[in-house]
Amino acid sequence: MSEERKIPYKIYLEESEMPKAWYNLRADMKNKPAPLLNPGTLKPMTADELKPVFCEELIKQELDDTTAYFEIPQEIQDFYKMYRPAPLVRAYCLEKKLQTPAKIYYKFEGNNTSGSHKLNSAIAQAYYAKKQGLKGVTTETGAGQWGTALSMACSYFDLDCKVYMVKISYEQKPFRREVMRTYGASVTPSPSMETEIGKQILAKHPGTTGSLGCAISEAVEAATTSEGYRYVLGSVLNQVLLHQSVIGLETKAALDKYGIEPDIIIGCAGGGSNLGGLIAPFMREKLRGEKGYRIIAVEPASCPSFTRGKYAYDFCDTGMVCPLAKMYTLGSDYIPAPNHAGGLRYHGMSSTLSQLYDDGLMEAVSVKQTEVFKAAEEFARVEGILPAPESSHAIKVAIDEALKCKETGEEKTIVFGLTGTGYFDMTAYEKFHDGKMDNYIPTDEEIAESLSKLPVVE
Amino acid sequence: MSEERKIPYKIYLEESEMPKAWYNLRADMKNKPAPLLNPGTLKPMTADELKPVFCEELIKQELDDTTAYFEIPQEIQDFYKMYRPAPLVRAYCLEKKLQTPAKIYYKFEGNNTSGSHKLNSAIAQAYYAKKQGLKGVTTETGAGQWGTALSMACSYFDLDCKVYMVKISYEQKPFRREVMRTYGASVTPSPSMETEIGKQILAKHPGTTGSLGCAISEAVEAATTSEGYRYVLGSVLNQVLLHQSVIGLETKAALDKYGIEPDIIIGCAGGGSNLGGLIAPFMREKLRGEKGYRIIAVEPASCPSFTRGKYAYDFCDTGMVCPLAKMYTLGSDYIPAPNHAGGLRYHGMSSTLSQLYDDGLMEAVSVKQTEVFKAAEEFARVEGILPAPESSHAIKVAIDEALKCKETGEEKTIVFGLTGTGYFDMTAYEKFHDGKMDNYIPTDEEIAESLSKLPVVE
């Protein structure tokens, strides 16, 4: 290990080396991601149609697929300096444990109170809302990682933040709720009596524990019916991938600083915000024919959009109030079984990543829940960080690739995204320790059933 | 703010700038801290007497009050590199919010899974246990911060780790327990049927929910009756302060790097491990007459050892199995009221710090619980980090001092220790948000009652 020591355990960029612009992956794509469609007319959504829902500057970012770089406003750069640069860590101890000749690096995004990379986009979205003179924003949250990040961001810009939290999470995961309240957000269990759609749902299903689809509908209604509010979202959208490019840009700068050339880049994928951000500058080189990286998306076997879904237009929400997006999808009705604790539960995938996958520019694998927690524990014990279940999907595949190198003797360089910490996921770890965690894998019939309800577009 | 920008938000030392030796504060003290006494003979404990309980190398560190620097073994330096250096953060946003001319810095020790500074000593103690060829170590834990840190450290050195966790915490705080299990520790609710003392207590009080004193007794018994085990402790002891000096040494190196001269240094104080570590190199200069820093210990009004306790020999545990220590104490029977959620519940204080306080080399203040949580929330909203309640005691007094500067117009430089994150303390935050938190302050009679049971030493 001693001659390697020139490369520190953790590479921190200097503040002066931090990215000053986000990179817009779509600018370098020959096949652009398909546009969002108006669910009524099935025509591409215009900026004007999106204005009641989204902030104006964010609509520009959402629709622009030609501008390669967007300058990061100084205020956002300043906020980034409070918790960034995120370290790029050389997993010396994991390598040693695995006895692999592979070199493993991970970009750790959990060094902030939100506990994940979500803050990178939350602060940007809050900034543009403030700049537009809005009073506040609305959003939905499931387990609460995105809601936490947005609450922090809104608190920083003194912006009101209304979070609709899926009722069962609100009741069963009170800690995330309290973090949001600490940052001054109002957190409402969804469905609620605060919105028309909430009242309708409660009238029809008095005992419902809520769903993400319902919470989205409430948040959108609250935004469009309140003066000075807009709706914000933490993944899937192009604008979110744009903001998250800060992950990849920092990673690449850190690698370049030490002359390290990665062979394989691995990220977990739910809606795609972390993966899209991590791979952005590497995919740029690949799109331009400069490099031939292997890029691997990892998804749960219980929610396998890439590996078993269909590339088609679909609803983004179960309430069907949002625009249609073309993406790898399992159908907007698809919900992973309740025993799935590993996150990454979204039925679809970012349009940008979907197009890249369809073009053969990246691979995808699905992994079983128990294997993910096994990898998480193995990682924690040697690297010290307690990983979020979501992040642990990437750990699992990084370990698999490192073990392949052990067999072949190849000294490959593997980089993966460690998106966050698992402090609020100890109930899932407990199930794993107690042998009460199993693996749910949907049948072909279940997926076919859900896909049969896709909207008909052309 | 712009001309200040030369000083980054976060000062990270290079790996090459990290401390290579711990600093032993006692070496520069004219009045040495009083020795531990054998509770039977009332004579100073010898190394031989301590051997059945502690590791040999740690006994040397415990008893040595003349050697100024102890080299940090390479293996520990390597482990430190996995989560250190800890950043020294300039609290630009807090300063702006307070509109103070003061410059505020905090040393943030929460960037590791254990969530606090406890890991700095845990890894050292595990290392020496491993080096001595032991199978494992035993310890007690209350809320679980120390137990978590020790579990991580033992996992790294492949050492068995038995944690006796106060039963009520074991049941009410399952998340910390699961973190320990993730790192492979065995966690036993105390009192248990695994030890003689546990059986005795359960026979006498069948429904007891346990106490720290009882857990200590069980952990000590388990260590002394199992082949190849020793007992370890996370605070109070001289050896722990020695290891924690890494906090202060890094802080001073970071300040020196940018030519920053602190006026006031603030730390929270329970048993004293964080405070003793943070102030070590600054106190050195003060002891040598080179500098005149103000050093402030902050303790909860509900457990005010410094400000309302007595400087005397006392038992370190309620079970009275451990050596006697001379310290500021409230009496080993003293237990803060159950409504106290802010940690720092130990009845006594490190002997080293007690002597320094008695010599007038540092100040102490006590603060009320609700004020602490108010400061915690104010800090979180602008600085982004969700602080542990313990750490928030220091935040409260740092804010108070910064506000004094605002009145006087003085541009003082304030440094405080932010020992950890509050992810596992959301129940306390919830009480605070719901207005259900109150302030318990012991009466003079209660303290006198508890102090009346001090052991008679000469």
In short:
The structure is a homodimer of 458-residue chains. Chain A is α/β, with parallel strands linked by helices and 458 residues long.
Fold topology:
The structure is a homodimer of 458-residue chains.
Chain A: E1 10-11, E2 21-23, H1 47-50, H2 56-63, E3 69-71, H3 74-83, E4 88-90, H4 92-98, E5 103-108, H5 119-131, E6 136-141, H6 145-156, E7 160-166, H7 167-172, H8 174-182, E8 186-190, H9 196-204, H10 212-225, E9 229-231, H11 238-257, E10 264-268, H12 273-287, E11 294-300, H13 305-308, E12 310-315, E13 324-329, H14 351-358, E14 363-367, H15 369-383, H16 389-408, E15 413-418, H17 426-433, H18 444-451
Parallel strand pairs in A: 5-15, 6-7, 6-9, 7-8, 10-11, 10-15, 11-14
Antiparallel strand pairs in A: 1-4, 2-3, 4-5, 12-13
- H/I helix tally of chain A: 18
Main sheet summary of chain A:
7 strands, mixed
Low-confidence stretches of chain A: 1-5
So what's the CATH class of the largest domain in chain A?
Alpha Beta
Q: Would you report the number of β strands of chain A?
A: 15
Task: Please name the CATH architecture of the largest domain in chain A.
Answer: 3-Layer(aba) Sandwich
For the termini of chain A, the CA-CA separation is 59 Å
Strand content of chain A: 15-25%
Task: Write down the Rg of chain A.
Answer: 21 Å
